[in-house]
Every structure is written in C-alpha cells, then in structure tokens.
Amino acid sequence: MLAVRGSDTLAQYNRRVKMVPASNVKLITTGLALRQLGPDWRFSTSLAYSGKITDGVLEGDLYILGGGDPTTGSGSPCADLLPKTFGSWMTLLTEAGIKEIRGNIVGDARFFKRPSQGLSWQAEDLGYNYGAGPSGLNFFENAQRFCVTPSVEGKSPSVRPLYPDTPWMSYMNMAVTGPARSGNSIYYLNNEYAPVGEFQGSFPSDRKSYTLEGSNSFGAYTCAYYFYNYLCDNGIAVHGRYADVSPLGLVRTDLLFSDIGPAAAHAESLTPIGKKQSPTVAQIVRDTNYESDNFYAESLFNMLAVSLYGHADRELSERAVYQLLKDMGLRTDGACQLLDGSGLSRKDYVSPDFFVSFLRKMYLSPEREPYVESLPSPGSKSTLQNRLPKAPDDVKERIKMKSGSMNGVRSFSGYILPASGNDSKPIVFSIITNNVSGPTYKVAAIIDEIILSLAQEP
C-alpha cells in the first residue's frame, strides 16, 4: 500500500511490489482514454449500402458499420434507449429516400479485429456478462440474460432465455438441481464458432428463480436482427435477412456456416447514409468507473490503439497503453504489466507506487475534473454503495476511489480530497491485497478503516 500527500508519505508497505489489481486497472484505462481521445470525443456507428436506390427501393444490402460503440442497446445510465437509437437510424434511411430494402441487414463488426476476449482471461469467466468482449458492432454489451428455476433434485433446472431474443441459438442444459441449501454453481459456456450454448453446474432446489447474466458471442448479428425487426415493424419492408460478416469476410445469414455467402463489401466501397454518435468519453468513463463495467473498459482499451495506429487488436492495444504511459513520463518496467483494459486478467500486475504516480499525474492534467468526477464515493449508487457505512457523509463525499475484486484480491485506489476551506493537497492512495485465503469481506472492512483514518488526517 501507499498513501501520500504532496511530498509527504503518510503510509506505505510493499509499495513497489507488483500485484494483481483487478478492476483498479480501469483507473489507468479511463485516464488514458480521457487524455488521448478527449472528454468530448464520441464513438460513431454508420449506415451505408451496396447497390443502388431506385424509386425508394434499395437494391442491395444495408450495412450497420460499427465503430466500436459499447453503448448500443446497453442499459447503462449514459446509453440511449434502444428505440431512440433505432429511431435515429431509421430517420437516416428516410432522409436517404429508402422505403424498401431488397437485400440483407448486415451487422459489420470489423472495426475491431478478433479476438474480442482477452487471451489471458480465465475460461470460467468467458460465459458470464463480465467476460463478454467488445467487437466493432455491439448489442446490449454482448450479454444475454437467462431465467433459472429449480426442478426436482437430480433433474435439470429450467433455463429460459430472457433478453435479448436469439432464435438462432441451440442450448444444451447439462446442469442439475442440487440439494436444498447447496451452493449455486450454474454457469454458461459459449463461443463465436457455433450458435450453441451449454449450461453446467448445480442449482439448489430450494432457491427462487435466478437471473443468470451470460455472454453473447454474436453481438453484431443480434444488432442486425433487432434492427431488421424494427424496420419491418415500422413500415420498411426488408426482403432479405439479417446477417453479419463472418470471420472469413463473408455475409453470413446462418451462423452455422461461416464459409458460405458472398464476400462482404469493404466500407470504402459502400455509399454512406449517415451516422449516429455515442455519449461522450467523459460519460462513458463515468459509467465505467461507477459500474466497474468491463465491457466499456475494454472498448476504450481498443480505441487507444485505433487512435495511435489506425486499427486495433489486443496486442496493439497493449502497446498503445505502454506508449501513452511513457508519454506521461511514467516508467512501467518492474512496476506495471497490463494485458487488458478491465483488470479481468490475472496476468495484470501493478504496484501501489505506480498507481499513486499515475493518479498524481491525472490530478495535475487538464482532464482532472472529468477524471475525478468519474470516481464514485463510498455510499453512492455504485460498486462502493456498501463501503464505509459508519463514516460521516461529509467524509465519504471527499473520498473518490475505484474498487477491485476477484477471488483472493481486494484493491482500492483513488483520492481523498481536502475538506472545504482546506487548502492542503489531496491524499493519493493505493491499497492492494492478494492471495487472501479467508473471506475477502473481512479484508475489505480492514481497508475501510485504513481509508477512513487517512480521510481524518488534518
């Protein structure tokens, strides 16, 4: 841990030891995004078409050209509601004179290169919503909800898809209903190579229905499906099908066959119709840190590479992070190793000393205001809602920090701002614990006491 105020060190222990920081990685990702992209920058999603328009009829395919926007169809506070998004897209079609489409609605996710998920992420995380990876075109943060209801002990529980609707998926339910008062270990397996999902694990017989938050490997296809239905329901007939672009670059109307179909058009060869922009980076960064949103963080991680190199894959995104940290005057050797933007990888290692150095740089940067405001306070409607429950409100309001947790890991890093009328500098701190063998809530309670003691420093 390390806590400093100006040039004074208030507390330290193993400050230079690299540790797994979990979601504290988002502090670095969001800070770099604000610096490199700018608080007012926005993602763009464009509509374009192949073929030609004759008397209001598009003789060709309509492409939804993703630009990496993570908020499309998302339920996060900053995101537009889906009817507003689709309504703006339909307005673009109307303004282009399109009343009928004799082709496909193609979701094009090629803006970010595959794979969408981190190669160092654990397999057990990939089927959950927090392990969903962003592509160039997303929908509902590439997640899917299922309702799980227990059955007779020894039999499979009922598993029913809730949202989004994915009629192309086949599900194998290999889970079992366990004894009363047993643990819930049900999990979901899926990947982008076939429209098949599998449920495994055990679900207690005495538990009420439960919503399982899974990942959806076909976000672009899902987006095309929902927009296809929206157009048909709102008076624009579509005579083709909904589709995406397969890994081989083909227009794919059936997810079982990635090697069948015509070649997808290159974006440069299409006729543009218009585009819709996302919320600002400042808004996305706030939701990322308040909700600890892995999907948003990984999207920003990808965009850092696009901003520097013109395109993104995971290796380029890693390189972009190191380059931008170097540009800030921060040395990463022996202090910082990052393989993703969310902290889901257990191969991420950062020392408390490095976090404090980064946080101090951000506090002195032109992006200080949106950055500090993006960090929640204990007791706020965020991942910190239950932190420091006994602390006075005026103390909690001065603490702006990010939490991080995974099995055996608890971390908290951020700022303690001076009280009103106090001209002292903020306290900058980073507390990371690894290899916790006992209940992590007990460790978190001890860390709460440390942070509260720091906040009560004169």
Which features characterize this protein?
458 residues; alpha/beta; Beta-lactamase; six-stranded mixed β-sheet; five-stranded antiparallel β-sheet; 26% strand
What does this structure look like?
The protein is an alpha/beta fold. Among the domains are: 212 residues, Beta-lactamase; 76 residues, no CATH class. It is 27% helix and 26% strand. A 6-stranded mixed sheet has the order 19-18-8-6-3-20. Strand 18 and strand 19 form a beta hairpin. Helix 1 packs antiparallel against helix 5, helix 5 packs antiparallel against helix 6 and helix 6 packs across helix 7. The radius of gyration is 24 Å and the shape is globular.
Largest sheet: 6 strands, mixed
CATH homolog superfamily of the domain at 2-38 and 281-455 = DD-peptidase/beta-lactamase superfamily
CATH topology title of the domain at 2-38 and 281-455: Beta-lactamase
Radius of gyration: 24 Å
Assign the CATH class of the domain at 2-38 and 281-455.
Alpha Beta
Structural class: alpha/beta
Helical content class: 25-40%
Number of strands: 25
Q: Looking across the biggest beta sheet, what order are the strands in?
A: 19-18-8-6-3-20
Report how far apart the termini are.
20 Å
CATH architecture annotation name of the domain at 2-38 and 281-455? 3-Layer(aba) Sandwich
The helix count comes to 11
What is the element layout, followed by pairings?
Blueprint: E1 2-5, E2 8-12, H1 25-36, E3 42-49, E4 52-54, E5 57-59, E6 62-65, H2 82-95, E7 100-101, E8 105-108, H3 123-126, E9 143-149, E10 158-163, E11 170-173, E12 176-178, E13 187-191, E14 194-200, E15 202-204, E16 210-215, H4 219-233, E17 237-238, E18 242-245, E19 251-252, E20 271-280, H5 281-291, H6 294-309, H7 314-327, E21 336-337, E22 349-350, H8 352-363, H9 368-373, H10 393-396, E23 399-406, E24 409-416, E25 427-433, H11 440-455
Helix pairs in contact: 1-5, 1-6, 5-6, 6-7
